[in-house]
Write a structure and sequence with these properties.
Elements (H helix, E strand, L loop, with lengths): L8 H7 L3 H23 L8 E7 L2 E6 L2 H21 L6 E6 L18 H13 L3 H11 L6
Parallel strand pairs: 2-3
Antiparallel strand pairs: 1-2
Helix pairs in contact: 2-3, 4-5
Length: 150
């Protein structure tokens, strides 16, 4: 019967039962190292907008969050390739820039305050004056005063 206790991800990676996790960990580490090298060569203003993705068959994918940064990266491609060849052990011959816009937090819909028309305010006043129940009449008068026209 399988254990019901949680297992740390690091344990799953170490025990080798899930080689995909080990490979994923290697790819993340490689991406982090490549991003550090990328940040050595690109202007500081671009750091938070650009990161290295995967390296496959001498092709480095760089991910950015806008077309403007992608254009700047494309101009820097020769310098980036040269820098990566000097500093990284795997050969890089080509760079592909991909745009992945940052996810925006969904905006909460702004609730429009309901307004009371002048006609409805008058109708509430007339109704309040014509009924016998004093509490209901007072409530209707209070509602009628919510109109910006009263």
């Amino acid at each position: 019967m399988p254990s019901k206790h949680p297992i740390r991800i690091q344990q799953l990676i170490k025990n080798g039962r899930y080689p995909q996790l080990k490979q994923l960990q290697r790819q993340i580490k490689q991406s982090d190292n490549l991003t550090d090298l990328l940040h050595e060569i690109i202007p500081f203003a671009m750091h938070q907008h650009c990161q290295a993705g995967i390296l496959h068959d001498k092709l480095l994918v760089i991910i950015t969050n806008s077309a403007a940064w992608a254009t700047r990266l494309r101009y820097l491609t020769p310098q980036i390739i040269q820098h990566m060849k000097k500093r990284y052990r795997a050969p890089i011959n080509k760079i592909q820039v991909k745009i992945r816009p940052q996810a925006k937090e969904p905006q909460k819909p702004t609730r429009q305050a309901t307004t009371l028309s002048k006609e409805n305010a008058e109708l509430l006043k007339k109704t309040a004056n014509s009924i016998q129940d004093p509490e209901l009449a007072e409530a209707l008068l209070k509602l009628s005063r919510l109109s910006p026209h009263s």
